[in-house]
Amino acid sequence: MYVAQLDRPWIETPFLFQGFCIRSKNEIDELRQYCDFVEIDFEQSDISLSDAQTIRLRGDSKSKKFGSGSRRKRGFWRRFLQFLFRRKQREQVNSPGAGNYYQDSVSVADELVVARTLHSGTLQQLISVLESIRRGGSVRVPDLEVVVNGMVESVLRNSTAMSLLVRMQKTDDYTHAHSLSTAMWALVFGRHLGLDRDSLRALGLGGLLLDVGKTKLPLELLKKQGPLTDVERMLVQNHVGLGLEIIRKAESIDSRVLEMVATHHERFDGSGYPTGLSGSQIPVFGRIGGIVDSYAAMSSDRSYANAMSTYDAMREFKALSDKKFQSELVEQFIQAIGIFPAGTLVELNTGEIAVVLKEHCNSRLRPEVAIILDAQKRPLDDFKVIDLDDESIDTSKTVDVWIKCGVKPGEYEIKVDDYFL
Q1: How far apart are the C-alpha atoms of 372 and 386, rounded to whole Å?
Q2: Closest CA to 152 of 221, 202, 98
Q3: Of 177, 162, 161, 137, the residue nearest 299 (C-alpha)
Q4: Which of 147, 162, 219, 255 could form an S-S bond across to 122 if both were Cys, CB 3.0 to 4.6 Å?
Q5: Sheet with 345-348, side-by-side order of all strands
Q6: Hey, how many other C-beta atoms are within 10 angstroms of the C-beta on 415?
Q7: CB count, 10 Å around CB of 163?
C-alpha cells in the first residue's frame, strides 16, 4: 500500500516527505512507532481494484459475525474514513505539491545583484571560521548563522541566482568552495521540499559544517592526487568524528545540524560510515546531507577527478537510487536541481554548443539556451537565444532541435559568467 499522509508532520519522522509504498513488515513496524494512523492512497498502491474494495468492505463481513457492538465500531470507522476522504479532497485543491511551496518573488537578474555580495561575504566568512579552527580556535556559530540567514532569504526570493554563482565560483581551496556549494544545494533542495525557514537555516548551517572535521587533517592528505591507501582512507573518514567534536563545543547548536554532520556519509544500503546505518535509521537531514555533499563533489574539480556535467551527475544518482541514496529523495533532488539547470553547458543535436539560460519546470529537457559555438565548435560573433520548448533554429524547416548531452564545466574554455554577470 502507498502511505500518502501521516498523523504528524513528515519532518518529525524518519520517513520521506511525499509518501512511500510499504515494501516490508519492518516499515509497518516503524510506522507504528511514530503514528497512530496513516492515510492510504489506493490509486498509487500496488494492489488490485478488487483487493482495495475487499479492504474497504472488510468491516461489513465482520459486523455480521460480531453483532451490534461491531456495528457501532463500523459506524465510527466509516465516519472517520469519510472525514479523511473529505480532508484529502481539500488538500488536493488547496495544498501545493513539492516544488510549489515557494514562488520566486524577484527575477534572476535582480537577485544576482544581491546574491553576488552574499556569495562573496559568505565565502570570506567561511574561510575565516575554518582557518581559525585549523589554528586551534572554536567554531563561531553566530558568524555563520548571519551569512546562512542571508543565503536562506536569497534562495527563497529566487533559487537560481545563488545557484549560478556557486557553479561559477573560482577558488583555489576545494574545501571552502565545497562547503559553500554543499550549503547552497541543501537550501535549494530544502526550498523545493517546502521546509520552513527554521529548518532551512539548520540545513544551510549543516551544509557549511559537514566537512569542518577536515580542518584537523593534513593538507597534503586532502590534496593528494590518485587513490588513497587503506590507512589514508581511514584518516579521511575520521573527519566525521572530528567534526562532531568541534561542533559540540559550540553553544546553542541545533541538534539537526549535529545529526546532519554525523550521518551525511551513511548510505541507504548500509554501506556508508562511520556506523553503517541504513534506510530510515539515517535521519532526514543526514539523507539530504549525503545527496547534496555528493552532488557538490561530482560537479566540482577535485584532485582525483574532473567535474561532471549536471546531466551526468543526475544519471549517476539514478543509478544509485535505493542503493546509496533513497530513491524518493533522489527523484525530488533531480526535480529541485534539474537535468539542465541555468548556467550549464550543453551540446545540441546540431553539434552546436549552448549555455542554458532558463529551465522550464514542465519541460526540463527543453530549456531556453544561448548558442555560443557553431557545429565546428567555433565561437559565434553573436550568440543566438532560442527556446527549445517551442522553436527550432531554422523555422523554415521541420528540423527539431534538442539537447544531445551535457558538457563538462570549463570545456571549450567557455566562461559561463560572461552570459549572466
Answers
A1: 11
A2: 202
A3: 177
A4: 147
A5: 379-387, 368-373, 353-358, 345-348, 403-407
A6: 11
A7: 23
Separation CA 56–CA 61 (nearest Å) = 11
Residues 392, 310: Cα–Cα separation, whole Å: 24
Which stretches within 95-173 are classed as H helix?
A: 108-134, 141-157, 159-168
Q: Which residues contact 326 (CB under 8 A, 6 or more apart)?
A: 16, 268, 279, 287
In tens, the pLDDT along 343-380 reads 888 999 999 999 998 888 777 788 889 899 999 999 98
Catalogue all structural domains in the chain, each as residue range(s) with its CATH number. Answer: 2-94 (no CATH), 108-337 (1.10.3210.10), 345-419 (no CATH)
Q: Quick: pLDDT tens for 384-409.
A: 889 988 754 444 554 588 888 888 87
Which residue(s) pair with 346 in the sheet?
Answer: 354, 406
User: Cα separation of 134 and 136, whole Å?
Assistant: 5
The amino acid at residue 190 is: G
